[in-house]
């Protein structure tokens, strides 16, 4: 259930942030910032869909709870640090401390996908 709640919330926010980035921030962002912001939205949406699927199909499998947590934390660290970097840079005060957080979030996502692959292959 937690995976589905986060999946739905991440999906909702991805649509809102995607529209916000494409329209309201279009004149404020550089091309690179726009592309980075879109990457954050895209990865967030991918994982929203996966979380909903995992939450529905594997409610009682402990490994899938771990995978869900890795995806949730990974999205928060990866996508939201990208949003913070892009927004802070666009408004003249780049929050550089967020830079190292992005790859850490990516690592959580990679570990989640590796565990998912392991689970599928072990059946």
Low-confidence stretches: none
Return the structural class: mainly alpha
Number of helices: 4
Count the E strands. Answer: 0
Mean pLDDT, nearest integer? 93
Estimate the helix proportion, in percent: over 70%
Descriptive notes:
The chain is an all-alpha fold. It is 81% helix and 0% strand. It has one domain (2-121). It is built from 4 helices and no strands. Helix 1 (2-24) packs antiparallel against helix 2, helix 1 runs parallel beside helix 3 (62-90) and helix 3 packs antiparallel against helix 4. The longest helix has 29 residues, at 62-90. The mean pLDDT is 93.
Q: Which features does this protein show?
A:
single chain; 123 residues; mainly alpha
Question: How are the SSEs ordered, and which strands pair?
Answer:
Blueprint: H1 2-24, H2 31-57, H3 62-90, H4 101-121
Short précis:
This protein has 123 residues and is an all-alpha fold.
């Amino acid at each position: 259930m937690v995976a589905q709640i986060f999946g739905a919330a991440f999906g909702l926010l991805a649509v809102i942030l995607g529209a916000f980035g494409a329209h309201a921030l279009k004149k404020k962002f550089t091309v690179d910032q726009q592309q980075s912001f879109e990457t954050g939205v895209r990865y967030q949406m991918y994982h929203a869909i996966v979380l909903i699927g995992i939450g529905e199909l594997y409610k009682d499998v402990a490994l899938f709870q771990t995978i869900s947590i890795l995806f949730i934390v990974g999205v928060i660290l990866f996508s939201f640090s990208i949003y913070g970097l892009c927004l802070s840079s666009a408004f003249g005060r780049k929050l550089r401390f967020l830079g190292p957080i992005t790859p850490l979030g990516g690592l959580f996502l990679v570990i989640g996908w590796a565990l998912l692959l392991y689970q599928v292959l072990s059946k």
